[in-house]
Amino acid sequence: MTQPDLRSIAREAEIFDGAPPISDQALLAAEQGRRRVFGAGSDAVGILGEGELDLVVRPGARGNGLGTRLLAQLLDAAGTDELRAWSHGENPAATALLTRAGFAPIRVLFRLALDIAQLDAAVADARPLPEGFSIEVFDGAADTGGPDSPRESEWVRVNAAAFADHPEQGAITLDDFRSTMAQPWFDPNDLLLAIDETNGAIAGYGWIKTIAGGTPDAAPETELYVLGVSPEYAGRGLGAALFGASLARMRDLGTSRITLYVDESNTNAVQLYMRGGFTIDQRSTQWLRSTPPI
């Protein structure tokens, strides 16, 4: 199965289901060869590697046992290794499939959404940037694609520190970062850096993912892709200020929809976003199949 086929099936399922069936990290890992891609014709795809599996069936081909057969193939390839899998959104079929395969739920991810009618108020109420910091956009022309790109390496370092306890976001490598920047949706103007004016260092960032509307005339949809603050700058209000700056950028883009993803267990972030007017739009569940006892 080609990479365009992989993304095509994922995109078709996302439009039909209202949620991405495969994370960006899993897609990038597959495209970089770190995870194996399994196909069932051109109607179903599975990704396996790095302790995770992902599986999606094209909407028009569901109900014919393709998912069951492909999951069996993935589990056979994984052997007895501990394995995690995501069920995105309310998905009874995936829940039944994973339960029968011996998986148990271990983690919940919220998708939060902001009513566009509340966007102006959320921007107006946002915390201002603390004194001694400024906002810059990522310099894509100067900082992309080579060893002489200090901002790229610095961003990776700051991200790893900010998400040291996060199993996916904290593991992003320089290659991952560059691969993400190569995606059609990436715009350097949507990666906002909070800069420490005393030394020019990245103190935190807010990153927006903008997706074109379904028709040429449709307004774009935006996602607060990720927001992080280096631990050495924690407690100064940078996260709240970057949140506000990201919302302002989304407003400038003329967005028709605003979403973000956050772990249920990250109570500080959940509270920040809900104070800004976000509400729970969808719940996704991560499942674990533990290694069988010897």
CATH class of the largest domain: Alpha Beta
Fraction in beta strands: 25-35%
Helix-strand makeup class = alpha+beta
SS element count, helices:
10
Total E-strand runs:
11
Which helices and strands occur, and which strands form pairs?
Layout: H1 3-17, H2 24-31, E1 36-40, E2 44-49, E3 52-57, H3 66-78, E4 83-87, H4 92-100, E5 104-114, H5 119-125, E6 133-137, H6 140-143, H7 150-162, H8 174-181, E7 191-196, E8 202-211, E9 221-229, H9 238-252, E10 257-263, H10 267-275, E11 279-289
Helix pairs in contact: 5-9
Structural commentary:
The longest helix is centred in the first third of the chain and has 15 residues, at 3-17. Helix 3 links the parallel strand 3 (52-57) and strand 4. The chain has helices at 3-17, 24-31, 66-78, 92-100, 119-125, 140-143, 150-162, 174-181, 238-252, 267-275; strands at 36-40, 44-49, 52-57, 83-87, 104-114, 133-137, 191-196, 202-211, 221-229, 257-263, 279-289. It is of the alpha+beta class and 294 residues long. The radius of gyration is 20 Å and the shape is globular. It is 34% helix and 28% strand. The two termini are 35 Å apart. It contains 10 helices and 11 strands. Helix 5 (119-125) runs antiparallel to helix 9. The protein has 2 domains: 3-110, 3-Layer(aba) Sandwich (Aminopeptidase); 116-276, Gcn5-related N-acetyltransferase (GNAT) (Aminopeptidase), CATH 3.40.630.30. The protein has an 11-stranded mixed sheet with strand order 1-2-3-4-11-5-10-9-8-7-6, sandwiched between helices.
